[in-house]
Amino acid sequence: MDPLRSTLFFISAFIYFYINKNPLVSLRQIVIKSLAKRISKRIKKDSLNAVKDQEAIRKWLIRKASKTKFGIDHKFNSLRTYEDFKAHIPIRDYEDLRPYVDRVVEGEKNILWPGSPKYFAKTSGPTSGVKYIPISRSSIKTHIAAARNALFNYVHLNNKAHLFDKKVIFLSGSPELFEKSNVKTGRLSGIVNHEIPSWLQKNQMPSWATNCIEDWENKVTKIADETIHQDMSLISGIPPWVQMYFEHLLEKSGKANIKELFPNFELFVYGGVNYEPYRQTMEKLIGSSVDSLETYPASEGFIAFQDTWDQPGLLLNSNARMFFEFVPLDEVHNEHPTRLSLAQVELNKDYALLISSDAGLWAYNIGDTVRFVSLDPYRLVVSGRIKHFISAFGEHVIAKEVEEAMLDTSQKFGFNVIDFTVAPQVNPGNDQLPYHEWFVALDRKPENLTEVESYLDTCMVKQNIYYEDLISGNILQKAKIRILEKEAFRKYMKSQGKLGGQNKVPRLSNDRKIADQLAKYLI
Questions:
Q1: Cα distances (Å, whole numbers) of residue 27 to 16, 33, 143, 169, 316
Q2: Which parts of 65-136 fold into alpha helices (H)?
Q3: N or C: which end of the chain has fewer CB within 10 A?
Q4: What kind and span of H or E run contains 373?
């Protein structure tokens, strides 16, 4: 018997006896268990070499793109050090990069990255209108690999190789794509559907036809119809829309909670918003706590994921062909802000995140702010959006602060938050002082709203010294809570044509546009 056939024989024999000895173990579980162990080990290794890997990635990106239009314009052939990189490649947002992106969208090759993109992720923003974020063949592979790594690391650390034997569901936007200059174009969540490995597609829900439904309410109804009698083990999506799906399931089934319907439901995967403000409501719907796995995907790349359950923060995806830079938040609007590499960041400071990647993004400001909670390894939390804040009086309140204040308050007074947002009330009238106005949808109205407001304001004062100064100096009066209908945020999002998918209501606004729309749903 030749060596190859001999090896295959012994592998087959091992699998046969292992499965017969453990009849509940499938061949899939054996393969997944082995692969998950290897991936988890690799994640650990990468986390220990993050700074070194980042330096190598920066050099690799410059070398690969040196003959592109962008590379020639920015003298990539002469860039040797990080200081050279910063001197020749300015920080850009989408509008700044648009002259190059528009040429890519029109079909020109070798503009930002060699060749043409494989996809365009179509997004929208308040200032840029429709945006087309290029996704190369290389970058979509690293994006999918990061999602796989996050899941398999969880599987290994929690001994859950059986997780994929049951049905799984990804609540996402439509996977239908259109072509723009021969490049497939659509929402990121829809694009990802085209890259899911075949071995997982067999267990994936919902059906393709249902997933293509654009109207979110009709889509959720149909998804509930398709999955109500399935054996679901993994559910993934943005918390407010998964909550809506759960409510449909319970209404249709008459069950008391989701665990009665899906007894093998073990893992909730989410990203895009902080789960904590929704956790109480979600666990009430589920009937118990279930494991959760937080991820940080964006159209620009898969940035970080939860790699441990005994430490806070998400592990930076430092070896994935993305070079990260960080700008101190208080300098982000300066003409020449400080730019830091990963080796230069500090704990518990807010930074604007810049990305240079193998999709052809260069010192690109994605609009998120992050805060490192560990430097060994590099773990971060998303602290907000650059454009989502309140600083009507110089207080610069960010999303992380209002989310932690609301979570603390809801836990103290025992109510569940469905959703909320905060806006400044600059001109309240009747000679009143201005204040921060919290629009909150709750499962029930608190008995003493004034007491709740006072405690919420105390939580804010503890977190933000500028806000504390404004309160103590009688520039602002204490925060006020406005109770909304339970369905208020869904009605608002539907009115804006943004119900479902990856859409979410900003936690903070520096104006009254959202607040004035929500006022019609006040109780």
A1: 9, 10, 27, 22, 32
A2: 69-73, 82-88, 94-105
A3: N
A4: strand 364-375
CB 306 within 8 A of CB 273: no
Residues 153 and 283 in one domain: yes
Residue ending a domain, among 298, 313, 333, is: 298
* Number of H-type helices and E-type strands within the chain: 19, 18
Residue 13 has pLDDT above 50, yes or no: no
Q: Where are the alpha helices (DSSP H) in 49-81?
A: 50-64, 69-73
pLDDT band at 6 (very low <50, low <70, confident <90, very high): very low
Q: Of the residues 298, 315, 335, which one is the last residue of a structural domain?
A: 298
- Name the band, by pLDDT with cuts 50, 70 and 90, for residue 22: low
Q: 207: alpha, beta or left, given left = phi > 0 and alpha = psi -120 to 50?
A: beta
Q: Is the pTM higher than 0.85?
A: no
Other CB atoms within a 10 A radius of the CB of residue 141 amount to: 15
Whether the pLDDT of residue 20 is over 50: the answer is no
Which domain does 157 fall in, by range?
139-298
CATH number, position 494 = 3.30.300
- Measured CA to CA, the distance from residue 318 to residue 428 in angstroms comes to 47
